[in-house]
């Protein structure tokens, strides 16, 4: 039995599946991941993403922050791909109970999934640091000016978790969903970023599956590991 067939059997025999997804899920939608050879971490002639996307950079040099943010994290024109749509189908069948994602691109939600924990936030919510006024993503990405509140003039901040910031309250809910799962399928993440990757250690169910192009620190703990393109794998599933 090949690995995709093994995965299909696991899905067929599971009733409480949780997905933990990373940037690799969205590369077939035309978005950059972080750690592959073409990812954001390997862009030349620039400071590290940890510095450019840090809370410290946002407040110290917001123009530099927004230049990097707009160049690398704009997903407004991206569309969900085969992986996103398969997960929607799996949710409709009652098997998929939750998606925990490190992605801020909103593509799981745009594909129709309902129970999505965006533990690093989303580009689609932005708030004034002064009065709290909400601004949509178009306001941030459709111009190159520093985004300032139209009401009070303060700087607008994306509702994303920057380096140096705490994870949102939904992280606790994500932890509980993993503890209840009979199958955890990790897709498109290197599992190198803490504390998000620590979620895998909470899994107490039967099947841990990791699907990622590159190896991860958790491969040896998994019941099934597939190192292939995600869309290639998910197109074969029923």
Low-pLDDT windows of residues: none
**What proportion of the residues is helical, as a percent range?**
25-40%
How much strand? 15-25%
Q: According to CATH, what is the class of the domain at 1-30 and 80-120 and 168-238?
A: Alpha Beta
Distance between the termini: 16 Å
What is the 3D form?
Answer: elongated
Based on DSSP secondary structure assignment, what is the total number of beta strands?
9
Mean pLDDT comes to 94
- Sheet bearing the most strands, described? 6 strands, parallel
Q: What's the CATH H-level superfamily name of the domain at 1-30 and 80-120 and 168-238?
A: TPP-binding domain
CATH topology of the domain at 1-30 and 80-120 and 168-238: Rossmann fold
- The Rg value, from CA coordinates, equals 18 Å
Q: What's the total helix number?
A: 9
The CATH architecture of the domain at 1-30 and 80-120 and 168-238 would be: 3-Layer(aba) Sandwich
Strand-and-helix sequence, N→C? HEHHHHEHEEEHEHEEEH
Would you write up a description of this structure?
The protein is 28% helix and 18% strand. It is α/β, with parallel strands linked by helices. It has a domain at 1-30 and 80-120 and 168-238: Rossmann fold.
Keywords summarizing the entry:
6-stranded parallel sheet, Rossmann fold, 3-stranded antiparallel sheet, 9 helices, alpha/beta, about 240 residues
């Amino acid at each position: 039995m090949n690995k995709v067939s093994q995965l299909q059997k696991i899905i067929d025999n599971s009733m409480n599946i949780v997905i933990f997804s990373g940037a690799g899920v969205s590369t077939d939608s035309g978005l950059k991941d972080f750690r592959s050879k073409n990812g954001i971490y390997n862009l030349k002639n620039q400071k590290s993403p940890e510095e450019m996307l840090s809370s410290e950079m946002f407040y110290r040099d917001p123009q530099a922050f927004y230049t990097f943010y707009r160049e690398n994290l704009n997903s407004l024109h991206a569309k969900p791909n085969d992986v996103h749509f398969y997960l929607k189908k799996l949710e409709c069948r009652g098997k998929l109970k939750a998606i925990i994602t490190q992605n801020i691109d909103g593509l799981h939600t745009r594909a129709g999934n309902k129970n999505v924990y965006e533990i690093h936030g989303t580009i689609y919510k932005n708030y004034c640091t002064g009065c709290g006024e909400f601004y949509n993503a178009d306001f941030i990405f459709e111009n190159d000016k520093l985004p300032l509140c139209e009401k009070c003039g303060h700087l607008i901040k994306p509702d994303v978790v920057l380096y140096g910031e705490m994870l949102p309250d939904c992280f606790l809910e994500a932890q509980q969903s993993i503890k209840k799962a009979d199958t955890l399928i990790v897709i498109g993440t290197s599992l190198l970023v803490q504390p998000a990757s620590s979620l895998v250690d909470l899994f107490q169910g039967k099947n841990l599956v990791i699907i990622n192009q590159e190896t991860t620190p958790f491969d040896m703990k998994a019941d099934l590991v597939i190192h292939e393109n995600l869309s290639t794998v998910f197109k074969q599933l029923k």
